[in-house]
């Protein structure tokens, strides 16, 4: 499912130098984070996200995004990389992330080459592009290259949290000004095929995962043992080609699977 933003961003940004744009955006993120601290836990309460990697060459931008995410999502581990090379080195050691936030203009790559490399090397990891400036062409190119969404740095804190929640829920987030969106991708067709390969019992368990149920709750609801549910979950992750429950839910929601 593809959704548009809710108008929290500035569609036409002034022509600032790239570094000035990054620094200004970082200050804006942190200002909104401080103003909206009280509602962060509520907004992130339903989203299942445990590990996030932020890839941006500007420390202030990374700090701003880190602050927003840390306050809005409970018990989340946030790692950072200042370059694509640093990020790849980190991912080669541990790739069990629920989401990657990638700066569009990171210095050691050209435009979408970083996204394409991450999708090629780590295809199961959702990658979201983040940028201070954007146009329709670059957003559509990012989606075609496999991006899970495109978040403007000009969004308010609440808008960034809303965008992340929607992406974790399996939606593809786009700036509100994008207008018409492309048809379902080859990746979505692959997700449908993988879900179709699940047994009826596994589809039922996946439906419970989508609704945010824990293994213990699912076992109680279905009248089976925890061992049985763990076996089903492991099989689901393997068939969907993911490493975590969160990634499985993202894929299921992306094609509108509810288990009903």
TrEMBL record:
Residues 51-168 form the Response regulatory domain. The modification 4-aspartylphosphate is found at residue 103. Transmembrane segments: none annotated. Residues 191-256 form the HTH luxR-type domain. Keywords: DNA-binding, Phosphoprotein. The keyword DNA-binding applies. This is Response regulator transcription factor. InterPro entries: CheY-like_superfamily, EvgA-like, NreC/VraR/RcsB-like_REC, Sig_transdc_resp-reg_C-effctor, Sig_transdc_resp-reg_receiver, Tscrpt_reg_LuxR_C, WH-like_DNA-bd_sf. PROSITE patterns: HTH_LUXR_1, HTH_LUXR_2, RESPONSE_REGULATORY. The lineage of its organism: Bacteria, Pseudomonadati, Pseudomonadota, Alphaproteobacteria, Sphingomonadales.
């Amino acid at each position: 499912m593809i959704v548009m933003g809710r108008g929290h961003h500035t569609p036409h940004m002034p022509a600032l130098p790239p570094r000035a744009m990054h620094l200004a955006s970082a200050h804006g993120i942190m200002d909104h984070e401080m103003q909206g601290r009280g509602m962060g836990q509520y907004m992130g309460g339903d989203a299942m996200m445990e590990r996030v990697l932020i890839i941006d060459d500007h420390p202030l931008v990374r700090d701003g995004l880190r602050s927003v995410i840390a306050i809005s999502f409970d018990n989340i581990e946030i790692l950072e990389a200042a370059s694509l090379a640093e990020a790849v080195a980190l991912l080669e050691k541990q790739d069990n992330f629920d989401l990657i936030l990638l700066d569009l203009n990171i210095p050691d790559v050209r435009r979408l080459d970083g996204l394409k490399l991450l999708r090629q090397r780590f295809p199961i990891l959702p990658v979201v592009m983040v940028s201070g400036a954007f146009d329709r062409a670059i957003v559509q190119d990012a989606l075609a290259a496999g991006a899970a969404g495109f978040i403007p740095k000009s969004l308010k804190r609440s808008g960034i949290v809303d965008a992340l929640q929607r992406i974790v829920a399996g939606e593809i987030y786009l700036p509100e000004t994008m207008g018409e969106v492309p048809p379902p991708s080859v990746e979505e067709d692959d997700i449908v095929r993988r879900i179709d390969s699940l047994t009826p019992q596994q589809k039922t368990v996946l439906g419970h995962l989508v609704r945010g149920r824990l293994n213990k709750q699912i076992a109680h609801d279905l009248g089976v043992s925890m061992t049985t549910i763990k076996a089903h979950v492991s099989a689901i992750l393997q068939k969907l080609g993911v490493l975590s429950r969160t990634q499985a839910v993202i894929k299921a929601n992306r094609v509108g699977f509810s288990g009903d």
